[in-house]
Amino acid sequence: xxxxxxxxxxxxxxxxxxxxxxxxxxxxxxxxxxxxxxxxxxxxxxxxxxxxxxxxxxxxxxxxxxxxxxxxxxxxxxxxxxxxxxxxxxxxxxxxxxxxxxxxxxxxxxxxxxxxxxxxxxxxxxxxxxxxxxxxxxxxxxxxxxxxxxxxxxxxxxxxxxxxxxxxxxxxxxxxxxxxx
Length: 181
Description:
The protein is built from 6 helices and no strands. The chain is an all-alpha fold. It has one domain. Helix 2 packs parallel to helix 4, helix 3 crosses helix 4 and helix 3 runs antiparallel to helix 6 (148-173). The longest helix has 28 residues, at 62-89. The radius of gyration is 16 Å and the shape is globular. It starts with a helix and ends in an 8-residue tail after the last helix.
């Protein structure tokens, strides 16, 4: 039950991040345990996303399921690379978890909304990418306290990785590792 509470608190925290309100941090558990909770929720919703997709394309084999979960995990990898890459170029005094924990929850929300939108229509996912880019920008501005330009570069880098890595894998391996939102 704590996981669902964490998801609700994260939504409230993200509303405060978007609005630039103070005390957004209290809605996230900015600890390794909080990061683990976010990652478990991400894995749960990735599994549910794959299960929903299987209704349209058929039940995947074990190899297909593992490949799909690995592709879903690339989003978290993109966030990690974006955060670490930006922090290497522009160091910040903020702890790493202050950016990673809300970022993982943004990916959870992206996965939930993306799964629902993919059932309705694929072109709507472009709007979702724009929304995610904005959320990542706000994350950089509020959580990491980066300047406008650095936060925009962080957002662009992370989104390019988030969209590009699964697409590249898809092109290299074919439909076995087809990305789902």
